Amino acid sequence: MPKTVVGVNHRHFGVVNVVKPIGLFSNRILFMLGIVGIVALAAGFGMPVCAGSVPSFVTQWGPSYGNGVEMFSNPSGIAVNASGYLYVADENNNRIEVFSPTGTFVTEWGPSYDIDNDKLAAPQSIAVSQTTGNVYVADATAKRIVEFTPTGTYVLQWGKFTLGDGYSQFNNPMSVAVSPKTDHVYVGDDDNLNNAQIQEFTANGGYLASWDSWSNGANTYQLSSPSCIAVSPTTDNLYVADAGKLNQVEEFTPAGTFVTSWNSWNNGASSFVSPQAIAVSPTTDDVYVTDPTSPPQVYVFTSSGAYITGWGPSYGNGNSVFMNPAGIAVNANNNVYVSDGCNGGSCNNMIEEFYFPPSAATAAGTAASGQASSGSNVPAGASPTRSGLDAIPVVGALGVCGAIFLYKKNTH
Known about the structure:
Distance between the termini: 53 Å
Oligomer: single chain
Radius of gyration: 22 Å
Shape: globular
Strand content: 35-45%
Helix content: under 10%
Largest sheet: 4 strands, antiparallel
């Protein structure tokens, strides 16, 4: 007669049937299960978290209004390079600030309102090449894209008041992203003469293609306001936060072919009101979206749009709450960085860091997308205390919601 016991394996935590005889055989089973548990702890298996779990708060820097070191005035776009360094577009200070993975200030450039070469005029979005480390800034006021080296040396620009809806012309270039596979640069023009569009360029600004609409069955839709773009490191597909009339996330192939779209209301959460920033995890392909206008203010989805979790249910200046989460980035360790700026007259002017363990089974066996502990992507003057791939000690069991999942967390 079978005996019912509680057991643990890699995928399930619940009731399993173990057939008699008991005694020595059962002891061996328990011994083997113990060994499996020890090995799992030692190896730090990245198992999926329970749906609905929220990331753990790690640290923040700021809040501090000003133009000095580690100070911000409405930080907007944020990006992480292949070595884990953070680049922040400090909008009202007209500059880019660079920080180590632990939030230590490294350098800055462009703190002067101008449209000449290395100067910036209210930079909105920022992206970093994972191969060269070069930095691309969407300088919307000057209607241009500006490219810099990892240390802030001016390389080139394109656009610059070439107002229009033709090739390499912009009206309000609010978003920029770089493909990890091809180094192609994608620019989202927020309202290009009532014809919002996405343009694709080579790494040095050579025009390749553009699109301004997409089809879903018998329906054809125009892009309404591509406020932010992110590129999947595995498929090279584009995810667009469309904050205009559509208020949704849209996925495209690199050639601009429509794949799918979703609004969070269809996934059991509050509806998007104005999705603003978007990022893709380099290890899980999960999609992170911020919406400053309605709780939760940060959403997490699978790559196909299945809702995982959300956090930031209220406005404020404490841990895990936001005023205006205008930018988001995720590194290969699943550390999530959110730039929190101003909402009306209320400002947080800070960066918040969270840790979110792999949330999908596809994370198992997926290699991190090339973060390195040293190399050409490390900005000059940097003295990192840890790299993007430092060991992550296992903390223990997150909790039980049909399964026990082990997770890993960075220490600071």
